[in-house]
Structures are given as C-alpha cells and as structure tokens.
C-alpha cells in the first residue's frame, strides 16, 4: 500500500495493478470492467468503477497510428433532425482529424449495453448522446474511464450534472405565437408535443405568455398535446378544426406536426394560408419543401451539435465548460402564414 | 532476392521489408504509402502500390482489443436518402459488432484525400462508397491495402470492375408511367433528373417504353430534365403547366422534384390529384408526409445498403460476390394520383 501511494503521489496516475489490489480483485477483472464486459457481478463492477473514478484512472492513450474517433449515439436514427446533428458533429470532428462513429441504440432514456461494450473497445475521444437523460449507471461507466460525454437534449430535460446543449424552447413558442398575433389572429390553436416532454411544455408556455401579454383569451379547447410526428398533427388538427369556433391559425409545435396540419386542412377543403395559417417548429429541410413552405421556428440543430462536440474536446483537455448551453431560436417566415380570412377579404 | 522469394512461397505473404527491397525504397517510405501519406512522390507511390497489390500484402489484422469499423463515405451528407443508406449499413454492422464511421467528403466523383488518409489509419473492415464512380487512383489505393470496397450508385453508372449495388431504374420509370396510363391519362409529362446521370435516362426510357407500348404519342414538349431537387421540379413544372395543352399527369422523377411539382400546381390554382396527378420516385419518408401523400416508386435504399455491407463482409472473407447487384423497385400508390379531371366529372 505504501508503495502504491508513493507512485500515486509521484505521477498522480494509478495503474490497473494498484486498482486491482485496492479492490481485492484480479487485474483481469479490472480489465473486464474497463472494457464494459457484461460478465462481472454488479457489486464488483461498482466497487472497481468507484476506485477508477476516484483515482482519475486514464487508459494509455491510443497509439499514434490509431485514428481518433468521436461517437454519436441516438435512440432514433430516423429522426428528421438526426441528419442536422450528425452534420454538426462531423464539422468539428473533421478539424481534429477524427472520424465520427454513428450508432442507434436503446430507448429514449438510455443507450443499450451492446453499444456500451463496443464503444469502450473503440476508445473514442468522447461521446455525444442524443437522449432525454442518462441512467446513473451509464454516467458512472463513462466517468470511470474518463471518457468525456455531452448530451444534446431535444426533449429539454437535462441532467444538472451532465454537460448538455439545448435550445430556447420557451422563447420559440413565444415568437411563433407573437407572429400570428401580429398577423391579426385572435383564435390561435396550439398542438404541442407529448405531455411528458419538457420542450413540449416550454413551447406551450411561450404560447400562453404571448397570448396573455397581448390581452387575448387562452381557450383550453385550443390546446392539444400531440406526438411531434405527422400523425399527431393530422389527428389533433382534424379534431380542432371540426369543433365550433375553429381557430384561424395553428402553432403546430414541430415541422412534422405542421405537415399533418397541412393535410388535415387540405382534406377539409381549407386553403393555407388563406383559410388557416400554420406555424411549425425546428426548420428542418422539409419545412422549406412543404407546399406552401412553412413559417417555422429555427432550432439551430447543427450548431447545437457543433457546440456539443467542441465541449467534448475541451473536457478532454480538462478545460472548464458550462454545464448547460442553450442556443437561441429564431422565427423564419415563409408562405404558410398570413392574415385571417376576414381581414384578407376586406369590406 | 532468392531469400525473399522463398519466404513468399512459404507463407504466401510478403513483408514490408521485402516490398521496400523490391521497390528500391526505404521501409519508412513503404509505410508512408500504406498510411496514405501525401508526402510521397506519385511515381514512387504507384510503384509501391503495384507491388503491394501484386503480392496481396495484408497488414497484420487489428488487435483483439480494437473494435472493428465499417466506413461509409458520401459526397453529400444532406441527401434525403442518406439516412436510409446509413440505416442499412448500421443494421449489418451491428450483427458483426462493428461500428459505422460516417464521412462526407469530396465531389460527386471521388472522396477527398484527407478522408483517404484518416480512413487508412482507422483500418476498417471495409468501405461503402456513395459516389457515381471512382477514380482509378482511389481504387488502386484501396486494393493495394486489401481493403474491400463496394459502391452504392444512386446515379446508376457503375464501374464494371467494382462491386456495386443499384436498383432497377428503367423498370421504375416504366411502372410509374403505366400506373398513370391505367388511371386514364394520355398527356403525361416527365421531369427526370440531370441529363448526365444514367438513372435519369433509365427512368425516362422506362416512361417512353410504357407510352409506346400503350400506343400513346410521346410528345417531346412533355419531356424535361431537372436536377432531382425541389427547385428543379418547381421550375420545370411551372414551365410545363403554362404551355398550351398541358399534361394531366406528371411523373416527377424523384420525390423531391414531386414536392416542387406540388407547389407549382398550388401556385397555379391546380388541385392534386383532381386537376393534376403526380408520381414521385424514391419513397423517402417525406413522400408519405406530403400533402397529398405521394404515389411513388419505392427505391429499396436500406436493403441496397445492407446488401452492399454484406458484400463487404464476403469480400473480406475472400468469398465470391456478384460484381453488380440490382434490386427491384416497386410502385407505392398513395393519394397524389387519380383519373384525369374530364373522366372524374363524367358526362
């Protein structure tokens, strides 16, 4: 023990052998834990990981001939905004000569164990995770190996102790609604995302504040929760437009939902924007390509991913980073919004 | 020389030292060539590469602790079908415990040198390239290092000596046009892709054959070349619809062009499908989400990428593969096609 402590003091670095000795296990067990192998009993794994983290164990760096890698892991690769995020990570990775490893794994809440094991073998510079939050276990495993990680949280529910990058959802909801109010609308519907996602609530709250600040009534019948997908927009809009006193404008909460709203309007014989104005959210490519092109809130997805990757590199160099970075959103006016029909037609 | 040849015969494997000796250069020069370093004179590089290839030089395999990687490289990461291809490579990579490294590089015709160098350092199992064709130089560099590669060729112009995966473009054009003819259309326009892309011509030829086989006149004024993007569809459709005797249906050549056609129709006050039927091509997600949802030709992008990746694994195991694999396309009927208005309205 005395010898181990002197080494520690001398270099500030602990070796695998020392960790094994302190944990009372074999070196090969410590090595298995480092490699994320599933065949180690949980209590043993936790004990070893705590020692690794407490002593800031760092593996020998990758050999000079091994090219650096940055990992990005999603739970849902088909997401329309995934491509923008990938592009952002790529932009920064390129400047560091690093390759980007892309994986789809797990559920909205955590990547799966098979990704963990494979990722640890690849020994990346760092990991960008596109998940709502991370289980304690995953965070511990990454910290134990000094692998920096950052969350990009489209759901808007960041762990307070994990560096994360998001965007200004409340402001986005406010701006979308203000735009419709400025066009002359009074009865404005909102179809936001799922109730359990913080970004849904933030956008909805922005809508409420815009209405209230303009002295307009917030009618609960004009507030519906969707699923952020086309079907949710279509179903909720069909519902909303078939009620008495339908809205003259709908803030659709996401571009995909806005597409569903466009189709619901078309099926009911309503023209956009003449009979119904529609605002989306995200500003993904298909917002430009919709017919008519969508007025929407630009979510700076690519820059969010670039910032997240820059944060990884700073963490790796042991530089300080903000725990939470929130990028501004902005209104993009296109062709799906206009004055309400009554104002259009004039006397 | 004699000693070198005996080694060769004994193991069938040549060493770096032997290559250096035969090329009349230093071992470190051979090593630089293997690593794709740019600071080797071209004649030297070519000489060394030819020796490497002639002797089927294979680097020592990656260490057990190094996780396997499969590379996919695009020239244009934002392409709407890129995500489907990535998904396909991922599906197969997962089953081999391999990570997928994703890169955007170069022009339509070739990846850039910085990718080459970084990729060689990563020593992947194989490379899937999404390019129209490959320069001889790139092929030689990959072959010299026994790195298997396969092209996925959305342009439809495969090198005869490179394993490639594509889909049945001529059949797709035929099916799209037949569908419109079966709905009762006679004046059918086509907006295909750029003139210099083989897949544009194949789809156009399919259209021509369908018209001719049905005894219908092929009017050159109803044939336009676009750009496979939304703008091309919009501009060409605006042109076509403003001429005398406009078509009652347009085969738009790609889903993105179809979106442009939908917008051109909307601006001219034409309803789809009542006044104009529209068929796309690709069947990317946004075909389902368009308003109305697009009738289109399904290009099996994900399966193409899965097949390409399976081919890589077989090449790596030195199993035979087809040089050219062409997957079938299929018609997907949604809401953007119907009978021409005259037939709708009846006597």
Considering the chains and any ligands shown, give keywords for the structure.
homodimer, 347 residues, alpha/beta, 6-stranded parallel β-sheet, 4-stranded parallel β-sheet, 14 helices, elongated, disordered N terminus, transcription regulation (chains A, B), Cro/C1-type_HTH (chains A, B), LacI/GalR-like_sensor (chains A, B)
Could you characterize the architecture of this molecule?
The structure is a homodimer of 347-residue chains. The first copy, chain A, has 347 residues and is α/β, with parallel strands linked by helices. Chain A is 44% helix and 14% strand. The N and C termini of chain A lie far apart (92 Å). At the A-B interface, helix 5, strand 2, helix 6, helix 11 and helix 12 of A face helix 5, strand 2, helix 6, helix 11 and helix 12 of B.
């Amino acid at each position: 023990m005395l010898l181990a402590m002197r080494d520690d003091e001398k270099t500030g670095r602990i070796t695998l052998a020392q960790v094994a000795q302190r944990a009372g296990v074999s070196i090969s067990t410590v090595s298995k834990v480092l490699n994320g192998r599933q065949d180690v009993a949980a209590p043993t794994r936790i004990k070893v990981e705590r020692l690794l983290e407490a002593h800031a164990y760092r593996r020998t760096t990758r050999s000079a001939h091994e090219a650096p890698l940055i990992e990005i892991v999603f739970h849902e690769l088909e997401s329309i905004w995934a491509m923008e995020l990938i592009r952002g990570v790529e932009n920064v990775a390129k400047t560091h000569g690093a390759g980007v490893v892309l994986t789809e794994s797990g559920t909205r809440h955590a990547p799966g164990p098979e990704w963990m094991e494979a990722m640890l073998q690849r020994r990346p510079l760092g990991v960008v995770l596109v998940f709502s939050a991370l289980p304690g276990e995953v965070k511990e495993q990454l910290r134990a190996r000094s692998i920096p990680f950052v969350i990009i949280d489209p759901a808007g529910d960041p762990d307070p102790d994990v560096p994360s990058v998001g965007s200004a959802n409340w402001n986005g909801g406010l701006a979308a609604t203000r735009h419709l109010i400025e066009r002359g609308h009074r009865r404005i519907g909102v179809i936001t995302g799922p109730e359990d996602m913080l970004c849904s609530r933030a956008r909805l709250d922005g809508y409420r504040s815009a209405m209230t600040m303009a002295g307009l009534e917030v009618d609960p019948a004009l507030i519906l929760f969707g699923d952020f997908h086309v079907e949710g927009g279509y179903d909720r809009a069909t519902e909303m437009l078939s009620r008495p006193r339908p809205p003259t404008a709908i803030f659709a909460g996401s571009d995909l939902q806005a597409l569903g709203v466009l189709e619901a309007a078309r099926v009911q014989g309503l023209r956009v924007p003449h009979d119904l104005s529609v605002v989306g959210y995200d500003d993904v490519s298909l917002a430009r390509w919709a017919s008519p092109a969508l007025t929407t809130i630009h979510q700076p997805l690519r820059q969010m991913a670039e910032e997240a990757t820059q944060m990884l590199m700073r963490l790796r160099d042991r530089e300080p980073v903000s725990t939470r970075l929130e990028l501004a959103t902005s209104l993009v006016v296109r062709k799906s919004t206009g004055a309400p029909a009554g104002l259009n037609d004039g006397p």
